[in-house]
Amino acid sequence: MFHVLIISLPYLLKGAAITVWLSLATISLGTLLGFALGTVGAVGPRPVRAAVAVYVFVLRGVPILVVMFLGYYVFPALGYKVDAYVAVGAAMVVYVGAFVSEIVRGAILAVPSSQIAAARSLGMRRWPMLREVVLPQAFRLATPPLLNTALTTVKQTSYVSVVGAWELSYAAREVVERTLAAFEIFLGVMVLYFIICYPLSLAARHLERRYAFAS
Amino acid sequence: MIAVSDLRKAFGPLTVLDGVSFAVAAGETVVVLGPSGSGKSTMLRCMNFLEPYDAGEIRIAGELVGYREDGDGRRVPRSEAEIARFRERVGMVFQSFNLFPHRSAVENVMMGPVHVRGIERKAARAIAETLLAKVGLAEKMAEYPARLSGGQQQRVAIARALAMEPKVMLFDEVTSALDPELVGEVLLVMRRLAQDGMTMIVVTHEIAFARDVADRIIFMDKGAIVEEGAPRELLLNPRAERLQAFLHRFSGGVAES
Fold first, then answer.
1. B173 contacts in chain A (CB < 8 Å)
2. What are phi and psi of B75, to 5 degrees?
3. Which of A49, A155, A181, B5 is most buried per CB count within 10 Å?
4. Residue B248 has what pLDDT?
C-alpha cells in the first residue's frame, strides 16, 4: 500500500528541503525584525511606538494569504522583477515580524517595574539596564510564544504555492495528481512536517531550561 | 548631607506629601515612622527621584535632586543621564528586595560596579565578595535569588546598594516582607552600617530598631511630619495624639521596655 509513498519519497524530500530552507529564512529574518520592532515598540520614542503599533495592528488583521499575494504583486507594480520565493519570503518576514514584535513588546512590558526601579536606583543608564536587566527577563517570558510563532511559520510555508512557489505541499499535490494515492502521500507529508517541526520544539525546551529561574 | 524643604507631591487629587521639611547630617541615622499611607515610602522614592515631586526641594550633598536651576531661579528637569549619575551615590533597598532573578548573588552585587562604575569584572567580583562576606553571605555567593531566604535576599540587596559606595542609604520598609525570624539578621546588618557612620534614612515599623539605632525619629501622618525628636524622648513622651495612638497599637508599648 505504501509502495507509492516510498517511490515518491525522493521527490517529496526535495520539497521538504525547500520548506526547511524557506522556514529557516523567514523565521530568522522575521524574528530579527520582530525583536528590533518589539524593543523600540516598548521603549522607543512615542512616534516610533505609535508606528510599530500601527504596523502590528494592520498585519494582525490580514490573512497571510492576502499578504503573500500583495508581496507577489507589489514588486511588479513598482516595476521590479523578483523571484517568486523572494517575493513571498519577504511577505512572510513582514508578517512574522509583526507577530514577534508584539510578543517581544509584551514581554518587555511584563518585566516588573520593581526590577526597573532597582536598576535605576543603582544609577544604571537606559541601554545597560535594557541589556542586563530587562531583555534577559523578557526573553524568558517570550520563549514559549516565540516557539509557537516559529511553528506556525513552518506550517504557513505551505501557502506559498498560491503564487507558484514550489515546496513540500505543492510537491505532494503533484504526486497525488499523478498517482491518485492521496491518503498515503498526505500521511507521509504529515510525518515530514512533524520531523521538520520537532527539532524546533526540542530547541525551545532547551532554551526554556537554560533561561529558567524560579520567580 | 540631606535637606528637604516644603516637599509636596500629589497623585491626581490625592495629596501624598503636604509640605515636608527636615534635615539629616552626615553619618546620622534617621528613622521614619508612620501609619501606611502616610507618605513615608513616596518621600523616600522622591529622594532618589524614582518619583518626581511637585514642589519644594530635596538637596543631597548640596545638589538639587532631579532638577537644575537656570539663571532666573526657575527649575528645569534634569536629563535621564544626569539623574542616573546622581543616583549612583544614593543607595536604595526595597521592601520586596528586587534582586535580579536571572543573576546569582555575587552577580547582583557586581551589577553596579561593572555596568555603572565601569570597573573590570575581576575587580568588581572582589568588591562584591568582600561585601557579601560583610553581610554574612560568603557561603551563598553563587546562589540565585530564588534559592535564598528572604533575609538572605535582603542582605544581598543591601550589599548590591553598598557596592556603588553611596553617600546615603535609603531603606524602604526592608523587613516588612520578611518572616519574623528573619528580621533580626537584616536589622543587624543595618545596625552595623549605622555604627560605621553611613548616612541612613530608614522607613520602618520596627520600633525597637528605631529606639536602639536611630539618632532621630520622624513621625509622619497624612503627608506631613507630626513629630520629630530623639528616640527615647519621642517614644516615651509622645506629645502628638496621633503618635500616641500609633505607638499604642504597636504591642502595647515596646517603648517602655
1. none
2. -110, 145
3. A181
4. 86
Residues B188, B157 contacting (CB under 8 angstroms) = no
Residues of A in contact with B80 (CB under 8 A): 125-126
Taking one residue from A and the other from B, the number of pairs with CB-CB distance under 8 angstroms is 77
Residue extents of the structural domains in chain A: 3-214
Sequence-separated (6 or more) residues with CB below 8 Å from residue B125: B106, B110
Q: What is the CA radius of gyration of chain A?
A: 21
| CA distances from residue B218 to A91, B30, B41, B50 in whole angstroms, order as listed | 64, 7, 13, 21
- Minimal Cα distance from A118: which residue of B? B98
Nine-digit cell string for B23: 534635615
- Out of A117, A126, A136, the one facing B94 most closely (by C-beta) is A117
Look at A213 and B115 and tell me if their CB atoms are within 8 Å.
no
The DSSP secondary structure of A61-76, one letter per residue, reads TS-HHHHHHHHHHHHH
Window A:88-147, CB contacts with B under 8 Å: 114-115, 117-126, 128, 132-133, 136-137, 140
Q: Cα(B76)–Cα(B69) distance, rounded to whole angstroms?
A: 6
- Hunting for cell 535637606 — which residue is that? B3
Residues of A in contact with B98 (CB under 8 A): 114-115, 117-118
Q: List, as one string, the DSSP characters of A96-160.
A: HHHHHHHHHHHHHHHS-HHHHHHHHHTT--HHHHIIIIIHHHHHHHHHHHHHHHHHHHHHHGGGG
> B119 in contact with A at a CB cutoff of 8 Å?
no
pLDDT values of chain B reduced to their tens digit, one per residue, 257 residues: 999 999 999 999 999 999 999 999 999 999 999 998 899 999 999 999 999 999 999 999 989 999 988 777 788 889 999 999 999 999 999 999 999 999 999 999 999 999 999 999 999 999 999 999 999 999 999 999 999 999 999 999 999 999 999 999 999 999 999 999 999 999 999 999 999 999 999 999 999 999 999 999 999 999 999 999 999 999 999 999 999 999 988 755 454 44
3-state secondary structure A80-107: CCCCHHHHHHHHHHHHHHHHHHHHHHHH
Closest Cα in chain A, distance from residue B256 (Å): 37
Any idea how long chain B is?
A: 257
The sign of the torsion formed by the CA atoms of A121, A123, A125, A131 equals negative
**In angstroms, what separates the C-alpha of B39 from chain A's closest C-alpha?**
18
- Is domain A3-214 given the CATH code 1.10.3720.10 in the classification? yes
**Residue among B93, B115, B173 with most chain A CBs within 10 A, to mutate:** B115
